[in-house]
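=== RUN LOG ===
request id: a7f3
mode: sequence -> structure
chains: 1
length: 427
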Amino acid sequence: MTGLEVDLSALFVLAVILIWFMIAYQFVLTVFGYINYVRSLRERTRIDGRDFEFPSCTILVPAHNEEKVIGRTLEALCALEYPSDRLTILIVDDASTDATGEIVEAAGAKDPRVRLLTIPPGEGGRGKSRALNVAFRQVASEVVAVYDADNTPAPSALRYLVAQLLLFPELGAALGKFRTVNRNATLLTRFINIETLSFQSILQAGRWQMHSIATLPGTNFVVWTRVLRELNGWDEDALTEDSELSIRIYQLGYTIKYIPYAVTFEQEPQVWRVWVRQRMRWVRGNNYVIAKFLRELPGFRSKRLAFDLLYTLSLYYLFFFAIVISLLLFVLSVANLVNIALPGPYTLVWMMAFVLFIGEIYLALSYDGEDSATNAALIALMYFTYCQLWIYVVLKAWYAEVASKGERVWDKTERVDPDLERRSHAG
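=== RESULT ===
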């Protein structure tokens, strides 16, 4: 065996260890996610049987050129099962150049709970965190809720979320589930639907059930106003303002709970170029959060929280490193350029990983009644296609970070025609 073969064999073993560590940890989270699913069914029944004195709540909706979707969002928000005299719906028109403002004003003329806050051109378009902070300065309610401009929450969603804040004083915030309204539109949206449901049912539900940790998404969550004031609102340099805010909430000593039965529907990218830009923003935002908090992790009061955050934040890169190394060695071996002279049942190990991948995600999909044969086939296809595209996204995000010299500009996700959403959702 040559020195090159020894080094490459060591890399191969390291890649296998990393992949199996992630699979094993995800399996544990899957088990806890199932426990959370069962317990949530019982919890929902108990909450439905109780009366609550709900606090005042302001829903913040950042909207930049959202004329295609804001009308449907307003319809859903106005239909929420929450005391009318305790609810304000504040739409932040972030320097839109389309009819977003006019649509909101028309809705406000019919429902006084709907208010429009306009950020004029020249002062707006600086990202979601900036728009939220501008709106937050006008909030006088006890609770703040956040929904994206393309969201259509179920009527019970807000009520279920705020009820958690009332029941558990240790909570600083609570988040619900988001589902893909246009999941049947394209192959990409089918992949995204599987990805988002499994992420929430495994990582969000599993982490919460395992050690009371969950991460805020960009939408469908509530937070005490006093907590936000103590934190001085959102970090305007963060492209993933949700994950950054989550860590600061935990640092204050509060927890964040995942509520799977508080559901909203949102539109996902239907074309690959939009998906790539969106995921690049996530990766670059993740880079910022890692850089901001990495040095502080040893000082966290909860070591389990420190481990979980480190694992979650580095998930992109552990996966990226392991997959790149394994794929590279596979290609080189097939081309007979290198020889990995290590005995072992590596084919069996790979097959077991593949089966576990399918089984875990299929179980997660069953919680929402999407455990179909078609989705099982799509999960297998995702393993070889969609999942591997993260390599391209991470590399492209790194290049963008270097090329822009760290400058971060908010890249808004493009929307599609609402009528197309309705047809795909009906399918």
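=== NOTES ===
The chain is about 55% helix and 10% strand.
The first strand starts at residue 57 and ends at 63.
=== END ===
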